[in-house]
TrEMBL record:
This is Protein farnesyltransferase/geranylgeranyltransferase type-1 subunit alpha. InterPro entries: Prenyl_trans_a. The keyword Magnesium applies. Its EC number is 2.5.1.58, 2.5.1.59. One of its GO terms (cellular component) is CAAX-protein geranylgeranyltransferase complex. It is an enzyme of class 2 (transferase). It comes from the Eukaryota. The gene is Dgri\GH11478. Belongs to the protein prenyltransferase subunit alpha family. Keywords: Magnesium, Prenyltransferase, Repeat, Transferase. It comes from Drosophila grimshawi. One of its GO terms (molecular function) is CAAX-protein geranylgeranyltransferase activity. The keyword Lyase does not apply. It holds the Pfam family PPTA.
Length: 330
């Protein structure tokens, strides 16, 4: 974010620091781009002045209320400036400032810069300093609920950090379920569900529950990658870790295929499942034949953009099956 509000420089309410009596003891420190900069950036007057004074304050190591106010103005012009955020934290510590006020300030900044890593990092440090995350779930929920932010990586990372650090798991499944109901393709919400369920533990009962949950969502939208990925992830948590470890899932996926569904995600799942079956029992050629047939269909009809990959999968399985087993070698 640049100095889009630089028009304020021309307004009477904004007084340049060089004209402020209480800043007369500070000599601004211009940016040093060297004698022959490759690309000289033409900063606007307000931006240049604020950061010239910011550099001067940092150089002299001043940590005061006016320095804190200056960081606020600098961050309004460039909220991605790591150095200013770091110095702001140093000032807050030095002044033993009211950190609740800082959280209030950050809520406003995040509302305008929800995909800015530096803002979220600063928020985390402040919460750690307070050792209190009581506002973080609401904050991240608001950030995710805003238009276009439902998959905001930074908001999700911050939410997971807060939940993990302060043990805030209890109501998270309900929150995630709401997001999935609103948008079944929200892969971030599916990932969050896995994160929460893994914390509580993938017991046999939980695995059955989560598999049923995923299959229910697939029934609604069969060509939806997110629940298929989730289904695989949950199956891998079973004792055997095999895709064919649950007969209900096998029957469900084969039923969809036999009914004529050709979702590439369904077919990719079945290819992986039949590969496992073929490698577990090389003498039974039916599973290997299914892999070959489906890979050809994927390469030529349903996932043409990855044609080379599906040809590789089919050929690689043939190579593996052609190798003598350990029993035959001995």
């Amino acid at each position: 974010m640049g100095d889009s509000s630089d028009e304020e420089y021309l307004h009477a309410e904004w007084v340049p620091y060089s004209e402020r009596a209480d800043w007369g003891d500070v000599t601004p420190l211009p940016q040093d781009d060297g004698p022959n900069p490759v690309v000289a950036i033409s900063y606007r007057p307000k931006f240049r002045e604020v950061f010239d004074y910011m550099r001067a304050i940092i150089a002299r190591g001043e940590k005061s209320q006016r320095a804190l106010d200056l960081t606020t103005e600098a961050l309004r012009l460039n909220p991605a400036n790591y150095t200013v955020w770091q110095y702001r934290r140093d000032i807050l510590r030095e002044l033993d400032a009211n950190l609740q006020h800082e959280l209030d300030y950050l809520e406003e900044v995040i509302g305008q810069n929800a995909k800015n890593y530096q803002v979220w990092h600063h928020r985390r440090v402040i919460v750690e300093m307070m050792n209190n995350a009581q506002f973080e779930l609401e904050l991240t929920q608001n950030a995710l609920d805003n238009d276009g932010n439902a998959k905001n990586y930074h908001a999700w990372q911050h939410r997971q950090w807060a939940i993990r650090t302060f043990n805030l798991y209890d109501d998270e499944l309900d929150f995630v379920d709401r997001l999935i109901c609103e948008d079944p393709r929200n892969n971030s919400a599916w990932n969050q569900r896995f994160f929460v369920v893994k914390h509580f533990g993938f017991t046999p009962e939980v695995i059955e529950r989560e598999l049923a949950y995923a299959m229910d969502r697939i029934r609604v939208i069969k060509n939806n990658e997110s629940p298929w990925n989730y289904l695989v992830g949950v199956l891998r948590q079973s004792k055997s870790g095999q895709l064919n470890s649950n007969s209900a899932v096998v029957a469900f996926s084969e039923g969809l295929y036999n009914a004529g569904n050709r979702s590439p995600y369904l077919m990719a799942f079945l290819i992986d499942l039949y590969q496992e079956q073929a490698l577990q029992d090389p003498s039974a050629g039916e599973a290997a034949q299914k892999v070959n047939t489906m890979c050809l269909d994927m390469a030529n009809k349903h996932d043409v953009i990855r044609r080379k990959y599906w040809e590789y999968v089919a050929n690689h399985l043939k190579i593996l099956l052609s190798k003598p087993s350990q029993t035959e070698q001995t």
